Amino acid sequence: MFMRFERMHRSKSFEVPTVMKNGIGIIRLLGEEQKKLGVSKPLIVTDTGVVKAGLLEPVTASLKEAGLTCAVYDCVVANPPLDCVAGATEMYLKENCDGLIAVGGGSSMDTAKAAGVEIAHGEPVLNYECAEGKKELTKRIPKLTTIPTTAGTGSEVTQWAVITDPAREYKFNVGGPLIAAHLAVVDPELHVSMPPLVTAGTGMDALCHAIECYTCHYAQPVTDAVALLAIEYCAKYLRRAFANGSDIEARYGMAMAALMAGLSYGSESAGAVHAMTQTLGGIVPVAHGPAVAATLAPVMEYNWMGEPEKYARIAQALGINTHGMSLERASLAAVEYIYELVEELEIPSLEEQGVSPDLIPRLAEEAYKDPQTTGNPRDIDVKGYQQIYLRCFDMD
Question: Whole-model pTM?
Answer without folding.
Answer: 0.94
